[in-house]
Amino acid sequence: MRRVLFLIGLGFPFLATSASTRTWYVAADGSGDAPSIAAAVDSSVSGDVILVGPGTHLVSSTVGDGVTMKSGTSLISEAGPEVTFLKPGSAPFQPGLVSTRDNCVVSGFSIVAFGISGATAPIMIGANNVEASNNIVHTASGAPAIAVSGSFVSIHHNICDGDGVGIYLAYAEGADIYRNIVLNGITDSGLCLGIRSIHCNLINGSSSTCPNYYDNFSADPMFCGATNYHLQGDSPCAPGNHPDGIDCGLIGPLPVGCGPVTVETRTWGSIKAMYRD
Question: For 23-273, which CATH class?
Answer without folding.
Answer: mainly beta
